[in-house]
Amino acid sequence: MKNNQYKQGYPLVKLDDFEQPSVAVDLVIFTIKERSLQTLLIKRGIVPFKESWALPGGFIKMNESLEESALRELEEETGVNKVYLEQLYTFGNVGRDPRGRVITVSYMALINSKDIKLKASTDASDVNWFRISNLPTLAFDHKKILNYAVKRLKWKFEYTTIAFSLLHSRFSLGELQRLYEIVFDKEIDKRNFRKKILSIDILKTESIMKDAPYRPPQLYSLKVKIGDSININNLA
Amino acid sequence: MKNNQYKQGYPLVKLDDFEQPSVAVDLVIFTIKERSLQTLLIKRGIVPFKESWALPGGFIKMNESLEESALRELEEETGVNKVYLEQLYTFGNVGRDPRGRVITVSYMALINSKDIKLKASTDASDVNWFRISNLPTLAFDHKKILNYAVKRLKWKFEYTTIAFSLLHSRFSLGELQRLYEIVFDKEIDKRNFRKKILSIDILKTESIMKDAPYRPPQLYSLKVKIGDSININNLA
DNA sequence: TGAATAGTGTCTTTCAGACAATATGCC
DNA sequence: GGCATATTGTCTGAAAGACACTATTCA
After folding, report:
1. Which residue in the set B8, B62, B64 is minimally distant from A98, CB to CB?
2. Residue B219 is inside which H or E element, if any?
């Protein structure tokens, strides 16, 4: 099994002189549902922490990169494959998994709730969305990972265009503002928000929305790449 | 050897059903020497990339956390043990190490050049400091790691107090300004810099320097923690 | 008094932040 | 006309950024 750890004749390099830890990927999947920021958790069907809620994730395979592994897990849990995905932090404390040494590379994914088709995964007896403001107790050190992810998310909302990955390709400024208000759990002055967003010149005007219940808004699209740096002030 | 991967009776959990990658830690060690930003590299004494320069690092041990592993490597290479240390990013592409699957967790360390006593490490035939502006070709994907570290360093200089980890506990504003000028490779207006630093109220005045060659400067010390958030504008 | 470094203040411009009235479309 | 949402501008205060002279110590 371990043979392919010895390649191209490097006999002196004994990677196996060291016991090897297991490497996993854990995902913090964010979406906006019911006017709140939510994340996907799975109820563990196996020990340890059987019946506890946990972040979706799993061990990496030898022939896939960390990111490919994260995308595979994401697809297995949600059926979604086109998302914003970002590596967060690697957690490797010795006792973090009672089964042995497991190092986990955490990722954050942002998906549009319309794209989701939840699947029941083999090792999860249940899968569900939870409001960030109302989370159950989590297995392992997943609470720590989730807290880290929320901080990073807010940070990235202020300093990059990742928010737009949660909107459709055409959106109104009202939708954008509601998104920021949900993530920061804070009301924002409409005039200042619009002034700020329009001043940084990242939007193209599109058509006007049809079939709006009341006055239809102007639609916009993002004319820079998702993840590009911007600076939306002080919303934190 | 692998027995302790099975603990506390979790027979169904077969971590070893998966081949395990190796996990390493690589260090980007920054210091200021000769009025420039420099990083420590080792010349590899073993294949692969024998005789190439590389970041210091090594495989983690089963009984140490990632951070402990980074600190151990740091101490082995430089003799330094009290430093600013921060995890950067985890690189895990399949082909990044010709010996097999090696996932590396990168760390950035900032050390005061006065504290360094370089040691010749067992697996390095040579150890040296290099200016960031004049680097040799690096082994593996270490160039990518280093580029990432430089970006993070600059970023953290603008938004946190990590710069102060490169100064003595008492320092002049001139020393602080020179440090920022070196890291950003850019001249900064003295009056605006001082105004800004003093306005954010993170410094305590100390004594006045003795034995200065010319007019002795006022000394200051940091009255908040290293790593605390601040905002030194727009130096990037 | 010359050399080297330390220390200081003003003006302009830009931007954040507070704040309220009008416009549009649907019923 | 009533309702729900969209859209727009002004004023104030704070801070960034440009800019040049004086102060201190030592040789």
Report:
1. B8
2. strand B218-222
User: CA-to-CA distance for A16 and A235, rounded, in angstroms?
Assistant: 49
Asked whether the predicted pLDDT for residue B79 surpasses 60, the reply is yes
Q: Could you read off the pLDDT of B6-49 as tens digits, one per residue?
A: 444 454 344 555 578 999 999 999 999 999 999 999 999 888 99
How many CB atoms are closer than 10 A to CB B132?
19
**A173-184 and A190-199 helices cross at what angle (nearest 10)?**
110
pLDDT digits (tens, 9 = 90+) for A30-74: 999 999 999 999 999 898 999 999 999 999 999 999 999 999 999
For residue A56, the Cα-to-chain-centroid distance in whole angstroms is: 11
Interface of A with B (CB under 8 A): 1-2, 4-8, 10, 12-13, 15, 18-23, 46-48, 59-66, 87, 89-90, 92-94, 98-103, 105
**pTM of this structure:** 0.91
d(CA B83, CA B29): 10
Q: Contact at 8 Å (CB) between A173 and A219?
A: no
Please, which positions of strand D sit below 7 A from a protein CB? 3-10, 15-20, 23-26
- A219: nt with nearest C1' to CA: D6
